[in-house]
Amino acid sequence: MSYQFDWSIIWQYRDLLLSGLLNTLQLVLISAPLALMSGAFLALMRLSGFRAFRLLSASYVEVNRNIPVVVKLFFFYFVFGIPPIFAALLGLIIHQSAYIAEDIRAAIQSIPRGQSEAARASGLTSWLLIRQIIMPQATKIALPTLVIEMIELLKNSSIAMVITVEELTFASQQIESVTFRGFETATFVTLTYFVLAWLIARVGQRYRSRSTIVALGGTV
After folding, report:
1. How many other C-beta atoms are found inside a 10 Å radius of the C-beta of residue 200?
2. Is 199 in contact with 205 (CB distance < 8 Å)?
3. What is the pLDDT of residues 89-127, one digit of tens each?
4. C-alpha–C-alpha distance, residues 78 and 59, integer Å
5. Which of the four CATH numbers 1.20.1440.230, 1.10.3720.10, 3.40.50.300, 3.40.190.10 does domain 8-215 have?
6. Up-side HSE of residue 138: CA atoms within 13 Å toward CB?
C-alpha cells in the first residue's frame, strides 16, 4: 500500500511549528553574538604575552573542541539543574566559542606584524591597536569560517530538544508522535533549516562585499 502524503499537517500545526521556529531563532540570535565575543576574547588571550592566559585559553579550546555539545547540554541540565533554555544557550556559547577562537586566532596571526609595529610607533595604545587595526582585519579574514560557525551553531541548536527545549526539531517530533506524519514534518523542518542557513550565508557574503568596497574607498 503506497504512502498517502498529507501536507495539510503543516498548516494544521502551524502554531506549534511557528513557536518552535521562534525558539530556534531565540537560541541562535542570543548565543551567536555571545559566542563571537567570547571567541574573540579567547583568541586574544591565546596570543597574549602572559603565559597563564595562553595556557588557560588553550585548555578551554582543546577541552571544548573535544566534548560533544550534547554532553555539555546534559551536564548543565542534569548535573547543575539549569533551566532548559539557559542550559542550551550556555552549551551553545561555550561549544561554538572554542571553534571561533581558533578561527580568529589564525586570522590575527595572518596579519603582517609590520602593521602592529607601525601603529605602536605612531603612539597608538594596545586597546586602540586591537580595536581599530587588528580586529577589523581579522574579522574580515576569518569571515568565511565564521559564517560556517554560525551555520553550525544553527544546526547544533536542534540538539537542544534532548533537554526539552521546544525548538523547531522538538516541534516536528511532537507533531510526528501525534499524526505519524514524519515525512511531511521532517521535510518542512529540513527546508526551514536550509533557508535559515542560506540567509546566514547571504548576510556574511553581503558583509564581506560591503567591507571590500569600503576598504577600496567606495560607497555602498
Report:
1. 19
2. no
3. 999 999 999 999 999 999 999 888 777 777 777 777 777
4. 24
5. 1.10.3720.10
6. 26
